[in-house]
Amino acid sequence: MKYCVLIPARAGSKGVKNKNKRICAGKPLINYTIEAAQASFKSNDIFISTNDHDIVDICKNLNINTSYKRPDSLAQSDSKMIDVVKDFASWLNANNQDYDNIILLQVTSPLRTSTHINEAVSLFDKKRNDHINLLVSVVEVPHNFICDSQYQETYGDTICGSNERISTRQNKTKYIARNGPAILIMNRNFILNTESFYSNDFIIYRMDRLSSIDIDDENDFITAEYLLNIFRK
Fold it and tell me: Does residue 49 lie within any of the structural domains?
């Protein structure tokens, strides 16, 4: 099966201003995702989805494919990622690009490496079938985020808590949640014929907590920069 990578990076953001191109541990945040993708795939198979001219320039300097142009209507703060990917998949069809699967790598997961990408692709190749056309990266929910019964809350799509009060970490039920997701792999035909990434069964790829850092606000950015300074120097 032939894969291509899509890196979504629209201009602006609410939680962290211009986070996709903001300097983090010495380089634009987007560079970490590009470098991880380039270690796994040829640059011409890596596409950017953006409306930001600065990001286009960054990608051109790193030999990333900039032939796909993201419509302004899909570069708004309330634009849905599923619509962004569907538009890209439609563009692949219109331009006779023969990729079977799309790997979505979000810029906000800078600790995700080529090793993670390669493992996820291998898992997708092994487990994908006619009924399962999606892989999602996940992380175990920290035990201190799991609620006792009287404070039962929803965490992603999973209910935290139980019918009994939990007193120790060892006795708590373990839960997982999407870590961004840092990696999302999907069959192209599946994406073109669905309205939700998670409408059917999907394959789970587990990642560790540090690699699962997902930048949503300034605290996340500071944490990611600290970890990148330690692990990427």
Answer: yes
